[in-house]
Specification:
Two copies of one chain form a homodimer.
Chain A: H1 3-18, H2 22-38, H3 40-56, H4 61-67, H5 71-86, E1 94-101, E2 104-112, E3 115-119, H6 124-137, E4 140-144, H7 150-164, E5 174-176, H8 180-187, E6 195-198, H9 202-210, E7 224-228, H10 234-246, E8 255-261, H11 265-278, E9 282-285, H12 287-292, E10 297-298, E11 312-318, H13 321-331, E12 336-340, H14 344-353, E13 358-363, E14 380-382, E15 390-392, E16 398-409, E17 425-426
Parallel strand pairs in A: 3-4, 3-6, 4-5, 7-8, 7-12, 8-11, 9-10, 9-11, 12-13
Antiparallel strand pairs in A: 1-2, 1-17, 2-16, 14-15
Chain lengths: ~425, ~425
């Protein structure tokens, strides 16, 4: 079978997952978790291969750390599977229910999208998490991980297939892709893939968006902001700025620009600069910031639109909350932005006017995450306004279907001069 | 200002609509309704111009009928506005609310998408309906109607602008486009338009989907089916078939193919054929149908995939419910499909397995409509699985935003060996 034919097979076979009961899907998840123990020696030696290759190719330490899939990681993903088993069924939720007339009942229920195409970074634990979300949500999954983790991903996918074979649902709903040519084929598989979720560099995500007419969920950049209002608690603002920049500088929900109200700039900026520099952050400052803090890198054209993904941060002085909002809506990527203020009214104004997926008051932008949000886990964060916005958990992998249950009703009864009226009585 | 600059203006100005209270938006709707009376002579003479041009250009009677905007149509759209005023506010709905930790509360609330770009047919009443949905949902609207109705559309748009000027919100949220070149500009206005809803021919909708990277909501064809199961009530099945084909043959929710279970074909097909022919329907039959009914047009390759949009219907005999489902999933356009059966279990199987936006049991496919569904009105019907599926009412014009309200929380507190646990307590 060609890879294209295999993708079509996934579409066909995934119908068995879509029609599986919650018990069947949770049982598959438990089998997958147990399979990781059964197949541990195979998985561990595959991971050793990947690590040896990473060593030989002198990969960066951060990348090597992500590649590791040891007993600790196995336990972590197993706990993740248990968390997902514990979640309520995302399928068959009655989202609306309405009587149109006596004996004519309309409902809108959640159903799986079909098949998800997912590209993710070289982190084998992500494979298990993504597969678990797919199983719980009843979606087939076609996935491609970072090539550095190929051996581990193969061993994990083999283990998952082995765990599901012989069940009523089987293992036909999963397909691991192994190279870029196969990803190119995936981008053209309009009839067999319902949603593509690319994770990776801006360039890669943009490439995917331009080369497919399948809907794409994700974000190409995370230019996030923290705005410190004139009435902010300085200690709180400092702690949030440090967390939002340094907790994980390369994460998409870390801030790239700190906006400070002019009234408090002379007092606050030297204080926050000291705290950030203490954590190794390189500061880029506008002229007002430079006058307050020695040796900042002067901000240049384009800095406001740059995602550093590193320990670098712009500091920009603004005259008002309104100016901060305008800066964020112009230069941000509509991902996650936060304000520090003691005035709930200003917080509400900021939340109303900032046009981003996540808008926070007095909390770090780093909270923008499916696990922290209580979604169980996430497949990604969407900056699209269509379908799912922000961290995408199980419900982001669902669509809905309108079901109408009648007893022979025809539309002509409800039209014309003697039209029978609809009752339109809400039932949920 | 160029048309592109005007589109940017709509994006900017629509923020005032997005932040308007429910009372303000309902007040605008009432002003628009009253304005149609105030400006009636202008609107009526503009409509007379369009009708005279239609006469001169010898347009088809059906098209001319749609162009008419007389007192009766004005009253109908005014009642439509009142219906929309009576609907609950789609904005600011709390869709999820969860305590992440004490003093750290997450909510997901509905917010307008921003600006909708809409192309619709030569029906001036549609303009008023679309504008009303935009106002209620807090979205700016850029719209282009069929050129045959240009004078009436201009007069209506002028009246709407006049009604809203001088209010706090103003009239900057609406822009009427007048030609195809302006539509082309709209398709490229990625930063200023959030969703495009094209109504029109398949060719036009496909053109739009191929020529924009703005999300598009709609359907390019409506190939709908009615399946008559072996246990169906014949009288009910006949009545539904006649309604689903002849109530409005050119509507997207009318059926193109009638599937009949082989067991009842000899008894049912002659009966339904007689009823359909009595309404002037041309029947295309497969070989089994042809053996039962004289003079059907023999089905040819491609008929299963054809949207007739006319009084023509395929009749196809199938061996089982399963075969009917497979036919529908292969040849349908995932729009609306129905079954007639006396067995609720078969109805459920059909609803579970047919992969369409609307799946009905014992009711006509013609019920697939925002008004009949109780959505107040519709801007269109979506066969996309992403965002909104089926008839799209107010909620289909909304997106959501995650709001997090904290008291200084940082993520590092919730990580590492001494991580504070999240409470993740559902509040809604």
């Amino acid at each position: 079978m060609t890879i294209r034919e295999q993708m079509h097979q996934v579409k066909e076979q995934s119908k068995r997952l879509a029609s599986a009961s919650l018990d069947e899907r949770d049982d598959l998840l438990a089998r997958i978790r147990e399979g990781l123990v059964r197949d541990w020696s195979e998985i561990a030696s595959a991971n050793a291969e990947d690590l040896a290759r990473a060593e030989a190719e002198a990969l960066k330490p951060a990348l090597k750390a992500r590649l590791v899939f040891d007993e600790e990681k196995r336990k972590a993903v197993s706990m993740g599977i248990d968390d997902i088993i514990a979640l309520p069924d995302p399928m068959g939720k009655v989202l609306e229910k309405r009587e149109l007339d006596v004996g004519l009942v309309l409902s809108r229920v959640s159903v799986p999208l079909g098949v998800i195409g997912m590209v993710f970074e070289a982190r084998p634990d992500a494979l298990v998490q993504i597969v678990s979300l797919a199983v719980k949500s009843g979606n087939g999954i076609i996935l491609k991980g970072g090539s550095e983790a190929l051996s581990t991903n193969r061993a994990l996918a083999r283990s998952i297939v082995r765990s599901c074979q012989g069940t009523r649902v089987g293992a036909g709903w999963i397909l691991l892709l192994e190279n870029r040519e196969e990803v190119s084929v995936m981008l053209t598989a309009r009839n067999d893939i319902d949603l593509i979720i690319p994770r990776g560099s801006n360039a890669f995500v943009s490439y995917v968006m331009e080369h497919t007419d399948i809907p794409v969920l994700g974000h190409s950049s995370g230019i996030c902001h923290l705005y410190v209002e004139s009435d902010a608690d300085f200690k709180m603002a400092c702690a949030i700025a440090v967390d939002a920049k340094t907790n994980a500088p390369s994460a998409c929900n870390s801030i790239e620009t700190l906006l400070v109200n002019r009234q408090v700039a002379p007092a606050f900026i030297p204080m926050v600069a000291k705290a950030l520099r203490g954590k190794g952050v390189v500061l880029h400052g506008d002229a007002e910031c430079a006058a307050l803090v020695p040796d900042v890198v002067p901000c240049r054209n384009g800095d406001w639109d740059t995602e550093y993904l590193a320990s670098e941060l712009n500091i920009h002085v603004v005259g008002s909350l309104q100016e901060a909002v305008e800066h964020i809506n112009r230069h941000g990527s509509h991902h996650t932005d936060a304000i520090v203020t003691n005035d709930p009214e200003k917080g509400r104004m900021f939340q109303q006017q900032v046009d981003s997926a996540d808008v926070f008051v007095n909390a770090s932008t780093r909270f923008a995450d499916g696990y922290r949000f209580g979604l169980g886990a996430e497949v990604g964060i969407s900056t699209s306004k269509i379908h799912a916005r922000g961290p995408v958990g199980l419900m982001g992998l669902m669509t809905s279907k309108w079901l109408l249950d009648g007893s022979g009703q025809v539309v002509s009864t409800y039209m014309g001069p003697h039209a029978r009226p609809f009752t339109h009585k809400e039932l949920v």
